[in-house]
Amino acid sequence: EPEVTQTPSHQVTQMGQEVILRCVPISNHLYFYWYRQILGQKVEFLVSFYNNEISEKSEIFDDQFSVERPDGSNFTLKIRSTKLEDSAMYFCASSEIRGQETQYFGPGTRLLVL
Amino acid sequence: KQEVTQIPAALSVPEGENLVLNCSFTDSAIYNLQWFRQDPGKGLTSLLLIQSSQREQTSGRLNASLDKSSGRSTLYIAASQPGDSATYLCAVKSYNTDKLIFGTGTRLQVFP
Q1: Could you report the per-residue pLDDT of A2-33, keeping only the tens digit for each?
Q2: A43 touches chain B (CB under 8 A)
Q3: The pLDDT of residue A101 is above 80
Q4: Cβ contact, residue pair B31, A105, below 8 Å
Q5: What per-residue confidence (pLDDT) applies to B43?
């Protein structure tokens, strides 16, 4: 069964460093999402992406965040200058049709900022 | 602003019991509602999706119902097994937005 994959599974970085989290959505899906979950808290929406542009973003998704689909398969989240409070599990998701169908989630990348 | 609440926060039951997990949301104008399972330190596995026009969905031992007018959904798990132990999350999607809004989850433990 097709699934969303994410790399790396874990990343440790120093505060102020740039990180890129990578995702490979399900191949025939057209809508892509990033969510995050700070330890012990709710899963929160960051951004949605369609047709090579951001379609919606939350107030969390400020200028230090960016997303890109650099080729036909990968979808990336870049954090330009990490802060301690960026430590969280980051989930990528994809769906075939906007809003109408299940969003399928990847296994997540656990980011720890020291 | 949509708020999603799940009760109970934790539940521990013996194997074989039928159980009900509850999800409530403050704005009844939802587009759909999705139930997920999350194992410790892992990703989210989609269990069931209910469109706003539907009343329930079933998959194996799982049955999810939706009462939009009262802002509630329930996940019914029949004949629980130790392998059902996980955190169960509900998430709602409203109109004119892409995002899912999640509840805090119910942590379920089924003991042999």
Answers
A1: 799 999 999 999 999 999 999 999 988 989 99
A2: yes
A3: no
A4: no
A5: 87
Q: Do B44 and A44 touch (CB under 8 A)?
A: no
The sign of the dihedral angle between the CA atoms of A62, A41, B7, A48 is positive
Phi-psi region for residue B71, left (φ > 0), alpha (ψ -120 to 50) or beta? left
| Of A80, A103, A83, A105, residue with least CA distance to A38 | A83
Q: What's residue A98's pLDDT?
A: 67
Query: Which residues of A fall within a CB distance of 8 Å from B44?
Result: 43, 91, 105
